[in-house]
Specification:
Elements (H helix, E strand, L loop, with lengths): L3 H38 L2 H26 L4 H29 L7 H28 L2 H30 L4 H22 L8
């Protein structure tokens, strides 16, 4: 006899996959826009944001794999997602320091500002939905992938501050400073995911 849990589980898995594919589609578009605008403006914060979007998409594919394989790959999926945080943190930190030391002045990017503003509003909604499903599935990998989406929102706020300060006040250093803040957040989330923290209250 099928229990309520047996009936609910496939529905939860389908919902988790749907949310993940929605996120992946947006991350691909976000990557293209951010990297293109970042190269045009010479903005490491914007390029780093785009690279993070690509890695968030990779984390999403890891999560789809975990949902297809079941609980037996839970820990491995969690660690693979954590690795994407570490890659983001290392890349952005190195490039931000190089920009600060070299004194490179990025140009104003209104496209980047609009992208950051849009992401800051929409990503928290998607992150909460992913976290809710992850908690219902008792899947730390799913909850940590939701944390990746939440990180995107945090990054967009830092990016918006950096790009805005550069555009309005001419503070060129605000761009790499924002990038360093993004790297610090990514490192923190990566360490949490690698340790296997549940993250029930962190999204």
């Amino acid at each position: 006899m099928r229990t309520v849990a047996d009936v609910a589980l496939p529905r939860l898995v389908r919902r988790a996959k749907t949310l993940t594919w929605i996120g992946n589609a947006w991350h691909v578009a976000e990557f293209a826009i951010a990297v293109g605008a970042g190269i045009a403006a010479g903005s490491i914060a914007l390029i780093g944001f785009g690279v993070d979007s690509l890695l968030e998409g990779i984390a999403g594919f890891v999560l789809v794999w975990r949902l297809q394989q079941g609980e037996r790959v839970e820990r491995r999926a969690q660690q693979l997602i954590a690795v994407t945080f570490f890659v983001v943190a290392a890349y952005i930190a190195v490039e931000a320091v190089r920009t600060l030391v070299g004194g490179d002045h990025p140009e104003t990017s209104w496209i980047g500002i609009a992208l950051a503003a849009f992401t800051a509003v929409t990503m928290p909604v998607l992150a909460r939905a992913k976290r809710r499903v992850g908690n219902d599935l008792s899947s730390s990998a799913t909850v940590n992938e939701a944390a990746q989406t939440r990180l995107c929102a945090y990054m967009s706020v830092a990016l918006l501050a950096g790009l805005g300060a550069n555009a309005v006040l001419g503070w060129w250093w605000a761009d790499p400073a924002a990038a360093l803040a993004i790297a610090a957040i990514a490192l923190q989330e990566g360490m949490r995911g690698w340790r296997g923290d549940s993250c029930d209250d962190c999204c």
